[in-house]
Specification:
- It is a single chain.
- This protein has one domain (5-310): Alpha-Beta Complex (Inosine-uridine Nucleoside N-ribohydrolase, Chain A), CATH 3.90.245.
- Helix 1 (15-25) packs antiparallel against helix 10 (215-235) and helix 5 (131-139) packs across helix 7 (175-182).
- The strands form two sheets. Strands 3-2-1-4-5-6-10-7 form an eight-stranded mixed sheet, with helices on both faces.
- By secondary structure, the protein is α/β, with parallel strands linked by helices.
- The longest helix is centred in the last third of the chain and has 21 residues, at 215-235.
- Helix 1 (15-25) links the parallel strand 1 and strand 2 (30-37).
- It contains twelve helices and ten strands.
- Helices cover 37% and strands 17% of the residues.
- It binds alpha-D-ribofuranose and calcium ion (CA).
- Alpha-D-ribofuranose is lined by residues 12, 14, 16-17, 40-41, 127-128, 153, 162, 168-170, 243-244.
Length: 313
Amino acid sequence: MPVPRKIIIDTDPGQDDAVAILLALGSSELDILGITAVAGNVPLKLTENNARKICELAGRPDIKVYSGAIRPLIRELVTAEEVHGKTGLNGPDLPELTMKLQEQHAVDYLVETLMREEAGTITLCPLGPLTNVALALIREPRIAPRIKEIVLMGGGFFEGGNVTPAAEFNIYVDPHAADVVFRSGVPIVMMPLDVTHKALTTTKRIDAFRKLGTKVGLATAQMLEFFERYDEGKYGTDGGPLHDPCVIAYLLKPELFQGRHCNVTVETSSELTMGMTVIDWWGVTKRPKNAMVMRDIDHDGFFALLVERLGRL
Ligand code: RIB
Ligand code: CA
């Protein structure tokens, strides 16, 4: 058995973040050093709670959860209660929290861990706005060459945006943080809407979680049934896109995904296209290729992996 891959999940739960965290917790190939909460889908007070609720749901109160940035670097916080509900985890009835939050600030935790652990051994997995990751890179630029890879959910190009015609939510909320990350020189794997919109939580797929007959399976089905209703209404599809678990699935089975190495540049000036990820898919510029941009997914294989791993919890 190879040495488990060390990861830190940065997250704004969010039902899809929750399923990503459960996938990671159900996979012994991964060693979750810590989870850092960021403001995004709902305010920080809720995302820091929700991250712990999911760890307790999975029977993992040992996981260390840190609280991070309460707002984006420059812009005002924009949240998405219309998608995720008031709590950010609407759907299941999760028990009251008992897990404690770690004292240390998430950004200090990121810097200290990356400076202490062997260089090139930690993968960062951002599932929300990139504020914490950008702040860590600004606070201690020496961490950049020490990060093995950043595998993130965010952005979109051929699929357009989901919060404006041009921008996807995670990037739109903190475009300046995203700009810092995409210019950092750290190897990036990007899961944009172009790939996540091909992973739909159809009725059959949600039933497969419920048929696990476990509290994790039931909670997952209830979370996804709540989460998908907004996108089903918007896109007229059976099911909604399951964004964040694509990040963890890539770590476990990269062969599920296809993409290409491109330049990705973030719009931070125009209000019309603020937060747009301009992906040079056809290589028409001389801009440096800074991200492996995923565009295709074996969605049956993706959901089979999810059901199998969540079934272990
Ligand atoms: O646009 C989808 C992304 O925004 C997902 O990460 C979802 O959880 C929200 O954070
Ligand atoms: Ca998220």
